[in-house]
Design goal:
It is built from eleven helices and no strands. With 219 residues, the protein is mainly α. The protein has one domain.
């Protein structure tokens, strides 16, 4: 019973904190043909989970490493810009295999950089039990894949949601940058500055997406 309750706690934690990850997957696979989206989502999420299990064993040290959050935040911003550009390209702009591999690469990178909170919470709930970690994360994969595919279909029907998704990633990237130990120690940013930077990153990505869309329409 204790094992089961702990496993359910890990599943709940991962699902609760997986919204950003599902959004990244949705943005990354949207440029793929319909038949490849579920495969890309499952492969990317599965690979990310395998690496996340390995990182959970050293989770306590992740938040103390200088420049890790800073690099991760910049990487998330770069991924947001890249998926915006890919989403604005016509479907045949890049070969299907290249798009497929790029989508999986984006998913793995973004998931690892954005999953520090997931990793720390799961490490605490599992008490270091590797079986619990693997079970909880594995059970959560279908939910993340399903929600990411639903988000991708929503973006197909309402393209403007792509820009909102990119804006959310901008907010996440800005938050990661300002919570890096080096930034906190060197600049000690206030809450107001933190919110302002997050809003600026979100607004910049939203505006960039709109400009790309208009330039593609005009051409």
């Amino acid at each position: 019973m204790h094992f089961l309750l702990s496993a359910l706690s890990i599943v709940f934690i991962d699902l609760l904190l997986a919204g950003d990850n599902a959004l990244v997957i949705a943005l990354a696979v949207r440029s793929l043909p319909q038949r490849e989206r579920r495969i890309g989502s499952a492969c990317g999420a599965g690979a990310a989970v395998v690496l996340r299990v390995a990182l959970t064993t050293v989770a306590a040290h992740l938040l103390t490493i200088r420049y890790l959050q800073l690099a991760g935040g910049l990487l998330v911003l770069w991924i947001a810009v890249k998926v915006l550009r890919d989403a604005s390209d016509p479907p045949d702009a890049a070969p299907a295999p290249k798009r497929f591999l790029e989508a999986i690469w984006y998913i793995v990178l973004a998931d690892l950089t954005m999953s520090t909170d997931n990793i720390l919470a799961i490490a605490g709930a599992s008490k270091g039990h590797l079986g619990l970690i693997v079970f909880g994360l594995a059970v959560s994969i279908p939910f993340v894949v399903l929600s990411s595919n639903l988000l991708a279909e929503l973006m197909d029907r309402f393209p403007w949601t792509i820009y909102i998704g990119a804006a959310v990633l901008g907010k996440v990237g800005g938050d990661m940058i300002l919570t890096d130990p080096f930034i906190v120690h060197r600049f000690d940013p206030t809450e107001l500055f933190r919110y302002a930077l997050e809003a600026a990153c979100a607004t910049a990505l939203f505006a960039y997406g709109l400009l790309l869309s208009r330039s593609r329409t005009a051409s």
